[in-house]
Design brief:
single chain, UDP-N-acetylmuramoyl-L-alanine:D-glutamate ligase, 12 helices, 13 strands
């Protein structure tokens, strides 16, 4: 991996101008390989398929989301990841890269007997795809006891802080982080995989989430319907109703790729189309969108304006083959915005320009 992201390119917001001044997050920290299949036909269960091994740098969800937050919010915003990596080449490289980006690394541990989390990502020629992730990794060793070591940092941030609970560490650990964050008045955000949603609902984890960011497949799982059973807007509405049954104050974001995004601010749903651009890879775009929402929220934007900012960051992210677009900063995002056919509110324009 090549480290190309540093805080020198960040926005320099004064902490006093931020609604939230720091975040404590957990989720997977790892890397992976990308394999491009030779056709857009969906891969069959027992099918063998040829393709190309791509020269792509892959990152896991926590790293992607927190990276854009640090780069775009700058030195006045504190980023504290909580996680584990193996004491191997990949883990050491990721640790240095996160440190160089400006993360506070006191709660990222190197585990000698476990490998760093690894994902094998498959990609179709049209840019869509999925991934398979190892379970027996250092990230799987992030237990609730380890999460509780972040209690002092969480208390210090208090009501000026945020929580991020992302997949690829055990669900019980993320639940502990959300509960601790909520007890101390932090703004709590989370995402979940499709396979976790039944357990998330059974445990009432949603009750401690202020903002949930999911994709359309995950929304359908929350709604208890089969993929494609209803039109996307109806599926989103049904998912929101299920989420509201466990937390009447929750804000909801649903991404739908080419269909854009839906956001619920507590009163109504707002839909924003995707930005039309040259798509190199959609991998990491949902995480970039989530990061944009959190950036906008930290800056005190209305949730729908944060959705616009998230659309912008996700739109630029897909122009890179890597799951973190290291070319994204204030100036490049501003140039990208000026080259789109979408109109953006003055609140965003003023934040991005000098």
């Amino acid at each position: 991996m090549v480290n190309t992201g540093t805080v020198s390119r960040a926005l320099h917001y004064e902490p006093s101008s931020l609604r939230y001044t720091g975040i404590v997050g957990t989720g997977g920290i790892g890397s992976g390989k990308f394999f491009q299949l030779d056709s857009n036909q969906t891969m069959g269960r027992e099918e063998s398929r040829s393709g190309l091994l791509l020269d792509v740098r892959d990152y896991c969800k926590q790293h992607i989301i927190l990276h854009y937050m640090k780069i775009l919010l700058g030195p006045g915003f504190t980023v504290i990841p909580v996680g584990k990596v193996g004491n191997d080449e990949t883990g050491n490289t990721l640790f240095r890269e996160m440190e160089d980006t400006g993360f506070k690394m006191d709660l990222v541990r190197k585990v000698p007997d476990l490998p760093t989390l690894f994902s094998f990502c498959f990609q179709y020629p049209d840019g869509s795809g999925g991934n398979m992730t190892t379970e027996n990794s250092a990230s799987a060793d992030v237990d609730p006891g380890f999460i509780r070591e972040a209690a002092v940092e969480i208390k210090n941030l208090g009501m000026s802080g945020m929580i991020l609970a992302a997949p690829e560490v055990p669900l019980s650990s993320r639940q502990t982080l959300l509960e601790t964050g909520k007890e101390n008045g932090l703004f709590c955000s989370a995402s979940f995989t499709t396979g976790e949603i039944g357990e998330v609902l059974d445990r009432s984890i949603i009750s401690n989430v202020d903002l949930i960011s999911i994709n359309l497949d995950e929304a359908e799982a929350f709604a208890g319907i089969q993929p494609g059973e209803r039109d996307p807007a109806s599926s989103v509405e049904s998912a929101i109703q299920v989420l509201l049954s466990q937390n009447e104050h929750i804000m909801v974001s649903v991404t739908g790729g080419k269909q854009g995004s839906w956001c619920w601010d507590g009163q109504r749903i707002n839909t924003v189309p995707p930005i039309e651009t040259r798509v190199v890879s959609t991998a990491g775009a949902g995480d970039a969108f989530f990061s944009g929402l959190l950036c906008g929220t930290s800056l005190g934007l209305h949730f729908f304006d944060a959705q616009r900012l998230a659309t912008l960051i996700a739109g630029m992210s897909v122009t890179s083959p890597h799951t973190i677009h290291h070319g994204i900063d204030r100036k490049s995002i501003c140039r990208f915005m000026e080259g789109t056919d979408q109109l953006f509110p003055e609140t965003i324009i003023n934040l991005l320009k000098d």
